[in-house]
Every structure is written in C-alpha cells, then in structure tokens.
Amino acid sequence: MDIRTRGLAQQWAMLLPALILILVLVVSPFVLSMYFSVTDQRLVPRPVPTKIVGALNYQRMFSDPLFWQAVWNTFLFAVIVTPVQLGMSLGGALVLNSAIPLRSFFRAVAILPLLLPMTVIVAIWAVLFRIPAGPFNAVYQWFAGADSYINFLGNPSTALLSIVALSAWATFPYQMLIYLAGLQEIPHDLYEAAKLDGANAWQRFRHITWPGLRNVNIFLLIITTVGALKLFTQVDILTNGGPNGATNTIIHYLFSQGYATQKVGYASAIAVVFFLGVSAIALLQRKVLKNEGEE
What is the pTM of this model? Predict the structure, then answer.
C-alpha cells in the first residue's frame, strides 16, 4: 500500500465514526419518517395492519388551519427572537471584551444560563410571569396601580412575546461566547491605528469590529434561526400551545399529533415537511450570506 492510499484510508477511518452517527441519528430517522408519512401508522400497535395511504396525510396537513397557525407562530418567533438574541449576545460580548473591572467574574456569571437545563429555566420564568403578584407584575403595579397586572401567558397578544423574552435570555450566552472569541481574533493593531486617525468608538465598531465579525455573524445567524424554528420546551411547559393557539409551534403541533392523538403517520408527514423547510432556509441563508473570501 503506497503512501497516498494509506493516507486516504486513514482519512476514511477518522470520518467513519461521524458518518455512522449521521447515518443512525439523521439519515435513518428521516427515511423512516418518509415511509411512515405515507401510511396510517399509529403509536400503539393495532390488530389492523398498517396501510399505505399515499399523500393523504400531506393533504390533510396542508388543509388544516392549525398547521398553518403553527407555521406562522414559528416563523414569527424566529423573526423576532433571532435579532434580539444576537443583539444581546453581541452587546454582552463587547462589554466582556472591554477592560471593565472584575471582567473574569462577569464572564463567569454571564454563562450561568448555559449551566441550567431548559426545564429549570422555564420553571423559574413561570414564577416571574405569575399573576397577579409575580415579580414582573409587582414591578408593573408600581406604575399602573396595585390592582393592575398583565396576564403574560394567558393573553394572545403577549404570550408569544413572553416566550421570546424567555428564550432570548436562556440561550444568548452561547452566541455571546462565540462573539467573544470572534472579537479576540480581530487584530488589536487595527484599533490602535484607528484611534491615531481620530476614529471614535462608533466608527471603530462600524469599520473594524463589524466587518471582522462577518463570518461569525453568518454562522450565528444560521444556527440561531434553526434553533428558533425548533421551539418546543418553553411552549409545552408554559402554555401548551395556548391561548387559542397563539404559541403553538410546528414542533409542538407535531408532538401533539404524534403522541396525544397517536397519529404517527400524520406526525411523520409534518416532520418531513419541517425538515425540508428548515434545510431550505439554512441553505438559502448560506447561499446568500457567503463567508469572507468566498465567491
């Protein structure tokens, strides 16, 4: 075996574990979902054998108003939470990258939400949202009167925004750490030269920091959007899709159809459409937002 063949074999040997995981955890479930999506498969086995129903599940899904409501809620959540979360992350990274007192301490405190499971975070925020005398309403009552309160999770006009606030706070430290790493990769000499030329803080951010974070922004935009589209835990625990479906998302709709009503075939059709939709959005973002140096 020559050196080239041996090197190729080593490369495949190193890639094999990852390829096996992708095959088992991604490709196989998707193939099974495609099969189940054209059947009347149930969660609990029935005496009647499973039948092929063709595109019936897809026809039912696209004609269901609840599905389109879930699509709209998911899209609206992603559109709102993505810029909010990235803005919080970038702002936090800029502060923690500057020469502030106790910087190491604040960096440690900022990543605390990453150490908590999402279920714990949701439970904490459920207390904050409590009516009529939760902490948030206690602050509101200082301005609006002792008998006033906001039904954050029970009002269709505020429920989704409340989920946005929770979700942005819970996961922004992850993006903040990536931004912080990106900021530290920008040569400090550029800032020194800009200061000598008389550039103020905004000009240095606009002409040095922001262009230097281009690749980081593209990466974070894609993963944050995909993560937002998968919203489930917060909704399932806090609102169960309510009120009046105002917080129902595609994943929650899929879960309710696949487990609550045990319609695995129908839920599989939703999963296939969701997977293709998210993949298309990610590929479109990747196509439009090219990394620095790419043609």
Answer: 0.88
